[in-house]
Amino acid sequence: MAYFLGRDVDVYITMESASGASNVGVWISGGAESTLVNTSGSGDIHFAFARNNDDYLSYAVKDVTGLDLSIGAVDEDITYFGVRSVTKAEVKKETTVSLTAKKSNFGWDEIYDSGRYGTSTAGSFTANALRSPTVDTGYRLHVVLKSGEEVFSIPGMCVQGHTVSVNADGTSEETLEFMSYVTPLIGNAANTGAITTSTL
């Protein structure tokens, strides 16, 4: 597990789906009740661009106070009849990112409610959540050290939790928790390639 302060890293969020249309992504439309939209309009809050759209580099997550990065493995005990020893077999790897930021709107509430898996088409987010997951499903997080020397890209992430901290003065921070079973990618630049069998 590694914990980073918000001043030490920049965090960028993209979708796993690629799109030739630069305006396709995930936005939160404000108003009396927040809703998710695929094409931005006036006053919409940006959340994620398509994977192959370089515009995301201009939209780091704002007001990040902390980031908790955990990498682990899920093991399974295997026993054989007539043998006393127990074998541990790795079933899958798991990467969890807890992103904490100052709460300024209801955007993350709406992401957790309706957009946990992103969107791969211009269709509704609810319909997308009912489909079987593919390599175009979910989000990709890019954790960039402020030095710019290392980028940690985690593909195939879905939102699995959202919490809001409340104190005597009101709401202060909120946390969005992402999870992925795909192996993270580390390099000098953000990885924007599609998920393949070699990255699983």
Estimated helix fraction? under 10%
Uncertain ranges: none
Number of DSSP helical runs:
2
Quick check: average pLDDT?
A: 83
Secondary structure category: mainly beta
What is the top-level CATH class? Answer: Mainly Beta
Looking at the structure, what is the overall shape? globular
Strand fraction equals over 45%
Q: Indicate the CATH architecture.
A: Roll
* Order of H and E elements: EEEEEEEHHEEEE
The Rg value, from CA coordinates, equals 18 Å
Taking the alpha carbons of the first and last residues, their distance comes to: 21 Å
Extended strand count = 11
Main sheet attributes: strand count, strand direction, barrel closure: 8 strands, antiparallel
State the CATH topology: Pnp Oxidase, Chain A
Count of discrete domains: 1
Write the layout of secondary structure elements.
Blueprint: E1 2-5, E2 9-15, E3 24-29, E4 35-39, E5 45-49, E6 64-79, E7 86-102, H1 107-114, H2 125-129, E8 139-145, E9 151-167, E10 170-180, E11 185-187
Antiparallel strand pairs: 1-6, 2-8, 3-4, 3-5, 6-7, 7-10, 8-9, 9-10, 9-11
Would you give an account of this structure?
The chain is mainly β. It has a single domain, classed as Roll (Pnp Oxidase, Chain A). It contains two helices and eleven strands, in the order βββββββααββββ. It has helices at residues 107-114, 125-129, and strands at 2-5, 9-15, 24-29, 35-39, 45-49, 64-79, 86-102, 139-145, 151-167, 170-180, 185-187. The strands form two sheets. Strands 1, 2, 6, 7, 8, 9, 10 and 11 form an eight-stranded antiparallel sheet that branches. Strands 4-3-5 form a three-stranded antiparallel sheet. β3 (24-29) and β4 (35-39) form a beta hairpin. The longest helix is centred in the middle third of the chain and has 8 residues, at 107-114. The radius of gyration is 18 Å and the shape is globular. The mean pLDDT is 83.
